[in-house]
Amino acid sequence: MLKRTRRKPDTVPVAGLSIYDPIHLGIFEDGHRADIPLVYRNILLAGEPGSGKSVGLNNVVAHAALCPDASLWLFDGKQVELGLWRELADVFVGPDISRALTALEQLQAEMNRRYEELDRVRRRKIDRTDPVDVIMLVVDELALFSATMGSKDEQDAFVRLLRDLVARGRAAGVIVVAATQRPSADIIPTSLRDLFGYRLAFRCTTDSSSDIVLGRGWASQGYNAATIAPEDRGIGLLLAEGGVPRRMKSAYLSDADIYSLVEYARQLKIGRAA
Ligand SMILES: Nc1ncnc2c1ncn2[C@@H]1O[C@H](COP(=O)(O)OP(=O)(O)OP(=O)(O)O)[C@@H](O)[C@H]1O
């Protein structure tokens, strides 16, 4: 068994969900539930402003918030998008690139420590029997950290650290969830995009920006988020590694729903600490 970092060794999830359970995102157009297992994977959400990214993101955060076996690290470049979840976050970073870099370095150190520990016990990945939390890192809006705030060196350092976490974090129990309203090659370079096992493209303005999210060539094969009508908010194309993009609609969470979920998650946390 891995050495404990956060959870008490005798703590088992007694209420709420597990981060090892599939996360409910919404519904596919054929009526099936869009449930995705995110542990050992990462997800990129992108689309033009107002297309439904925040609502999509909230579904993912809500699941993790209700999981006694998950920690939330929220990076909110706009401060208010994820702000409703703030009190449940283990780490909350607003529009501050130096704090973001410090937090990413800490997370990288924790990931490395977990790998050393896994290596010591001759294991390849953490699993639900380990007394360590899965850490969900949520970054919204990616472009603010990678291209807008701070110096070029800081932005490059941010992208380097994030890429390392996306590339190596999975087996160590680090899930990266990143969202951007700027699906352009400078914000989502192919080398970063390809590391995301799930990609969810809400409405994009051009065929090429849809391809930047989903992968080259999908638009010409008919999987094109630029064809989603502007009024179809919350509709997106979800691509799972090795699959074909599927049209889906996010489950809608109003602010009132989120307040209730935060309160419920807070009660679970209190119960857990008692
Ligand atoms: N799944 C959905 N069902 C119903 N309405 C939705 C859904 N998703 C989004 N909407 C509507 O679209 C609005 C904009 O959605 P959202 O805030 O998620 O967009 P966004 O892409 O995050 O925008 P921005 O990039 O400007 O932050 C919501 O306030 C809501 O009214």
TrEMBL record:
<dbReference type="InterPro" id="IPR027417">
    <property type="entry name" value="P-loop_NTPase"/>
</dbReference>
<protein>
    <submittedName>
        <fullName>DNA segregation ATPase, FtsK/SpoIIIE family</fullName>
    </submittedName>
</protein>
<keyword id="KW-0547">Nucleotide-binding</keyword>
<feature type="coiled-coil region">
    <location>
        <begin position="97"/>
        <end position="124"/>
    </location>
</feature>
<keyword id="KW-0175">Coiled coil</keyword>
<feature type="binding site">
    <location>
        <begin position="47"/>
        <end position="54"/>
    </location>
    <ligand>
        <name>ATP</name>
    </ligand>
</feature>
<feature type="domain" description="FtsK">
    <location>
        <begin position="20"/>
        <end position="211"/>
    </location>
</feature>
<dbReference type="Pfam" id="PF01580">
    <property type="entry name" value="FtsK_SpoIIIE"/>
</dbReference>
<dbReference type="GO" id="GO:0005524">
    <property type="term" value="F:ATP binding"/>
</dbReference>
<dbReference type="InterPro" id="IPR002543">
    <property type="entry name" value="FtsK_dom"/>
</dbReference>
<dbReference type="InterPro" id="IPR050206">
    <property type="entry name" value="FtsK/SpoIIIE/SftA"/>
</dbReference>
<keyword id="KW-0067">ATP-binding</keyword>
<dbReference type="GO" id="GO:0003677">
    <property type="term" value="F:DNA binding"/>
</dbReference>
